[in-house]
Amino acid sequence: MANLIKDQQDILEKLKIYSLNPMQEEAIGAIKKNDKIILLSPTGTGKTLAFLLPLLEQLDPESQEVQALIVVPSRELAIQIETVIRDMGSGYKANAIYGGRAISKDKIELKHTPAILIGTPGRLADHFEQERFTTDHIKTLVIDEFDLSIEVGSSGEMKVIMAYLDNVTKRILTSATQGTSIPGFLQMDKAKTLNFLNEKESSKLTVKTVISPSENKHNTLVDLLYFLGNEPGIVFCNTKNSIEDLSRFLDKKKIAHACFHGGMEQRDRERALIQLRNGSVSVLVASDVASRGIDIPEMKYIIHYEIPSAYQEYTHRNGRTARVNSKGTAYLIQGKKEVFPEFIEKSKIEKIPMNSGGWKPQFWTTLFISGGRKDKISKGDIAGLFFKQANINKDQLGVIELKQDCAFVAVPASIADDLVDALNNVRLKKKKVRVHLM
Description:
By secondary structure, this protein is of the alpha/beta class. It has helices at 8-14, 22-33, 47-58, 75-88, 103-110, 121-129, 146-152, 157-163, 218-228, 240-252, 266-278, 311-318, 379-389, 416-423, and strands at 36-40, 68-71, 94-97, 116-119, 140-143, 170-175, 192-195, 205-211, 233-236, 257-260, 283-286, 301-304, 328-334, 348-349, 364-369, 400-402, 407-412, 426-428, 431-433, 435-437. It folds into three domains: 8-195, 3-Layer(aba) Sandwich (Rossmann fold), CATH 3.40.50; 205-349, P-loop containing nucleotide triphosphate hydrolases (Rossmann fold, 3-Layer(aba) Sandwich); 364-437, 2-Layer Sandwich (Alpha-Beta Plaits), CATH 3.30.70. The longest helix is centred in the first third of the chain and has 14 residues, at 75-88.
């Protein structure tokens, strides 16, 4: 039986959220009253919490089977939702399964059946067809970012999934985009739609254009990054080749950054986001995969190094800054003779200094530890190790991210090598752990 936190306010306090926004309040009420809901709301407005809170109320603590299914378009979003559920402290087991990692890991986790299963279409369809657990008890279906999820599962995986969900009584579809047609097999006829995309609120987003004196925009980007300083932001490119080419140039300029695109191994994508979250890098050079469904902090700015081909991608990129209650800026770098698409509105020209100095080194860097939750290791255990055996103080210990089989710790770059020497091959709980720079 789950050790339940039954009161919604207890969950919110555990998450350090002290009030719901109007969208969340309306959505929660509608989900409780209606069996079919389509929730349309901009990126960063808290849709995940809006469907998770009423979903938890629907679960039976006595059941030992999967009761709720959340379909997502990306690995990162699956991991993010799993983390949110764990942080809510409901006591219900949740597991994320997705492509890009060994299916044997899924099998191990699914031996202890979760109440909530989160997954990408292809991996879910595979588990369903192999009948690795029963789907008879799944009553709630959430398709998060349904426009992307349908696209990802367009080869037939979504139809396979739906064929196994005969007993679903509540369907929730969410998206940050409107206008996507919903296939009939999702059975969303007569659904109630909540649309928060067209609300006329004063925009907290400022859009500025930076003119490059040449067709090659590399140096202009570097000048802009120098101008912005070490504030966290994302530089968007259109292709993997552009990202890799730009990354090599930023390496030459000694600008600490991480890359993120669909062609990377899942482990490398996760580690790029960890470095961004803990301050080891402040710049993420990314494709449109990073415009939605990844767990990163508020960005002070985004840069369109290359302009996307469609308005939807443009708006989703912009949605990574100026989120909820914060302000942010979207910069467009316009090369010599470059003509922007018609959907790009004219914006203020931002003049930035050229060759204005250099890049301030990052204060933090990341250490890898070869032990995690499966070894009964907690964040407190890791903090204790650093305080007692490495003799550092609280100000020298940054963000700790604990995974199933490893952990990542932000420490000052100036003492990182000394910490590796002091802690590598020591015992943490009952496990001898390796510690090294990531």
